[in-house]
Amino acid sequence: MDSALNQLAAQINSIVLGRLAAQQIRVREKWEPQITESLDSTADECLRDIKKTMVQYRPLFGGLATPALLQLRLGLSFANIVRENAAQAKGLLRAMIQSEAKALSDIITLNGLVGGRGGQKPPALAERLANELADGAALDKATGKSLQLFKKRVFAVLAEGDSSELGASELMERLGAATTWWRGRLRTIANTVLYAAAAQLRRTVNEYLWRGASQASGF
C-alpha cells in the first residue's frame, strides 16, 4: 500500500514540476517580451517628443520661450507618455497573472490536496492572486522614480545646450545617450515586476501543495 502511495506521489510531483517549468517558459517567452516592450518603448516616445518640442516651442511662444517653459512642457508630456505605457504594462501583467493563476489552480486541483479541506478554493485563490499581484503599485512607483531621473538628465543636457556652443548633433547625441540609459532602466523595471509576480505565484503553489500534503499525512 505504501509503495503504491509513494509511486502515486512521485507521479503527481513529476506532473506538478513539469507544469511549473512550463509556466516559467511561458513567462519568459510569451509575457516578458510584451511587458518589456510596453515599457521600454516609453523612452523612444519621449525622445521623439523632445525633438518635436524643440522645433516647435520657440516659434510657438516667441519671446516667452524660456528653459523653464520648455521643461514644463516636456515634463507634462513625459508624464502622459509614462502613464499610458505603464497602464498598458499593468494590463498585460494582470492578463499574465490571471492566465498563470488559472494554471496554478489546475495544478492544485490535480493534486487534490486543496478543496474540501476548509481551505480557499482554487478559483477563489486565482482571483485573489490576480487582484493582489497585478495592482501595479510597484510598477507605478518604479517608473515614476525612473522618470524623475530621466528628466534630470535631459534637462541638464538642454541647459548645457542653452549656455554653451554645444552643436545640434552633439546635443542629440547626449539626449540619445540619456534615452538609452532610461530604456535600460525601464526594461529592468518590467522584468523585475514580472518575475516577482511569477515567483509569488510559484511560492503560492508550493505553499498550498505543502499544506495539502501535511493535512493528508495527518501532520
Q: State the low-pLDDT regions, or none.
A: 111-119
Secondary-structure element order, N to C: HHHHH
Largest sheet: none
Assign the structural class, choosing from mainly alpha, mainly beta, alpha/beta, alpha+beta, or little secondary structure.
mainly alpha
Count of DSSP strands: 0
> How many whole angstroms does the radius of gyration measure?
25 Å
Count the helices. How many?
5
Report the β-strand fraction as a percent range: under 5%
Shape: elongated
The average pLDDT value, as a whole number, equals 80
As a percent range, the share of helical residues equals over 70%
Count of the separate structural domains: 1
Distance between the termini: 19 Å
Distinctive features:
219 residues; mainly alpha
Account of the 3D structure:
- This protein has about 220 residues and is mainly alpha-helical.
- It has one domain.
- It has five helices and no strands.
- Helix 1 packs antiparallel against helix 2 and helix 4 runs antiparallel to helix 5.
- The longest helix has about 60 residues.
- It is elongated, with a radius of gyration of 25 Å.
- About 5% of the residues have low confidence.
Give me the secondary-structure topology.
Layout: H1 2-61, H2 67-111, H3 122-133, H4 137-163, H5 168-217
Quick rundown:
This protein has 219 residues and is mainly alpha-helical. It is 89% helix and 0% strand.
